[in-house]
Specification:
GO terms for molecular function: acid-thiol ligase activity. It comes from Halothiobacillus neapolitanus (strain ATCC 23641 / DSM 15147 / CIP 104769 / NCIMB 8539 / c2) (Thiobacillus neapolitanus). This is AMP-dependent synthetase and ligase. Helices cover 31% and strands 26% of the residues. With 530 residues, the protein is an alpha/beta fold. Among the domains are: 183 residues, 3-Layer(aba) Sandwich (Rossmann fold); 98 residues, GMP Synthetase, Chain A, domain 3 (2-Layer Sandwich), CATH 3.30.300. Helix 2 packs across helix 3. The radius of gyration is 23 Å and the shape is globular. It starts with 17 loop residues before the first helix and ends in a 7-residue tail after the last helix.
């Protein structure tokens, strides 16, 4: 493992709001690189000036703080400028998954009541279709000049005087992260500014290097920015004065090229990305000599893949576990734990200082060590609420505890082990899919009586969704037609990889679908059912 030079650590200070990051870094590191993207390099000075222009534009357009501003498109410099522009202007940032269909985008736009929507040129058609579909009136700003009445180019080159920016409250909502819900519709997770700095501050105070960022680091953002993991990672890097390396889209060969060209030292990725990256490294006989740490999360990793990664890359590995609702990571399997005891390789890790865990049964009773139950987390980085959903909020957030829906247990040393999911979420390549959302669409097909979506194991993606359908009486389901039907109605990663017709679905006496019985046929003999 590569040694750590304490003299290279970023300045240890407590961040109170997201906007403060750039204000601080531009004073100390104006000429230093902040963003590497597709061969371009943006300094902290340019980064700040562009973000400030965005903030001035937002203040001029919106009448009060906490209005919602969306962004849809692949990550590039403007994505991060919009993030900090929103933070400085006191409005709420809403990143939207560019993989979604117009119908799915329309739900988020209307649910969040987005006032201004930034879009790259590639997604402009989807944006226009979604707005026509829902009838929502939002001002659209295209990143490419001349494609909308308001262009990003015009914002950056405005000569208007700087506006008076509102004072930031660290408790105020900074962003809405939309995560799929069991009702089939995504829910907006309201996260305050402070959620993005509580864990970093706790690690600094305890002098723990489980996760660390140095000013000289060049940090690969492997996880998309519309996920809490990608957004959280980038903000930690900027907080430390480091540089980020941005991939508009993850492709293994392009990722390797960027890592080599930019001299990446740390990276945050999901296990499926690590697997694909290792393939191209071995194919090219490449050496990432500057890489010192990979942080991974978003889904389980096999012991074989983890040991392969350690062998090929020779760097530290740290696993993070958490949810959008916990402000991203709440538990970490630190680098030392990866090497100290083989049995810990299947653990999620230990809670950070200031984070508490408990395992409860179905009655809410706390279970002793070693017994499996629902994992509950109390963290200072937790969400405020689900946007406009008080009942869903009270079900998930109880007395300061986030009820995760994951099943797990704690060992005698306080390590958390995740065994299965109490909720039915499928995690494929770091993307979460809730069966109810897919089932709602499949069930609308003319000859489908009922259906069930489950995740089955996959060596590359962890698991992938498949669908079992029961035809309507005296009808038949044409599988080819059903796949075509789903093409425009579901994001690509949500579409079932297989569809099978069955006579019936297993149910209990109360009529509840026994999804576990369907899963067992595919997961039997495996150590973990995730």
């Amino acid at each position: 493992m590569r040694s750590m030079d304490a003299s290279d650590l970023g300045e240890l200070y407590v961040v109170k709001d997201v906007g403060e990051i750039l204000r601080r870094q531009v004073k100390k590191r104006a000429s230093e690189p902040a963003i590497f993207c597709d061969g371009r390099v943006t300094s902290y000075d340019s980064f700040y000036k562009h973000s400030r222009k965005v903030a001035d534009f937002l203040v001029s357009r919106l009448s009060c703080i906490e209005r919602r501003v969306g962004y849809i498109g692949r990550e590039c410099e403007p994505y991060y400028e919009v993030i900090f522009g929103c933070a400085m202007a006191g409005v709420i940032f809403v990143p939207i998954n560019w993989r979604l269909t117009p119908n799915e985008v329309a739900h988020i736009v209307t649910d969040a009541s987005i006032d201004i929507l930034f879009s790259d040129a590639e997604m402009l058609g989807v944006v226009e279709e979604s707005l026509d579909m829902c009838g929502h009136d939002a001002e659209v700003v295209c990143l490419k000049h001349g494609m909308t009445s308001t262009s990003y180019f015009a914002i950056l080159h405005s000569v208007a005087k700087e506006s008076v920016l509102p004072a930031c409250d660290p408790e105020r909502t900074f962003c809405l992260i939309y995560t799929s819900g069991t009702t089939g519709l995504p829910k907006g997770v309201c996260l305050p500014h402070k959620a993005f700095f509580q864990i970093r501050e706790a690690l600094i105070k305890q002098d723990l290097k489980w996760l660390d960022w140095r000013q000289s680091d060049r940090c690969l953002v492997g996880i998309p920015g519309f996920h809490i993991g990608g957004l959280w990672w980038a903000l930690q890097c900027f907080s430390s004065g480091a540089s980020i390396v941005v991939l508009p889209k993850f492709e293994p060969q392009l990722c390797l090229t960027a890592m080599l060209d930019c001299g990446v030292t740390t990276a945050c990725m999901v296990p499926s990305m690590i697997n694909l990256l290792l393939d191209v490294i071995e194919q090219n006989d490449a050496k990432l000599l500057k890489l010192r740490k990979i942080v991974y999360g978003g889904g389980p990793i096999s012991e074989a893949l983890l040991m392969r990664g350690i062998s090929v890359l020779g760097c530290d590995f740290a696993q993070i576990y958490g949810l959008s609702e916990t402000g991203n990571t709440a538990v970490c399997l630190d680098p030392d734990s990866h090497l100290s005891e083989p049995s810990l390789l299947t653990a999620a890790g230990r809670p950070y200082p200031g984070v508490k865990l408990k395992i409860i049964d179905t009655d809410g009773k706390v279970l002793p060590m070693g017994e499996v139950g629902e994992v509950c987390i109390k963290t200072p980085a937790r969400m405020i609420e689900y946007w406009g959903l008080p009942d869903a909020t009270s079900a998930t957030l109880q007395d300061g505890w986030i009820h995760t829906g994951d099943a797990g247990y704690l060992n005698e040393s306080g390590y958390l082990f995740i065994c299965d999911r109490i909720k039915d979420v499928i995690v494929t390549g770091g993307e979460k899919i809730f069966p109810a959302e897919v089932e709602n669409v499949v069930s609308s097909f003319s000859t489908v009586h009922e259906c069930a979506v489950i995740g089955i194991p996959n060596e590359v993606w962890g698991e992938v969704p498949i669908c079992l359908v029961v035809p309507k009486p005296e009808s038949a389901v044409n599988i080819t037609d059903l796949f075509k039907f789903l093409e425009s109605r579901l994001a690509a990663y949500k579409k079932p990889t297989q569809i099978h017709c069955v006579d019936s679905l297993p149910r209990n006496p109360s009529g509840k679908l026994l999804r576990r019985a369907l899963r067992d046929a595919f997961w039997t003999g495996r150590k973990r059912n995730v």
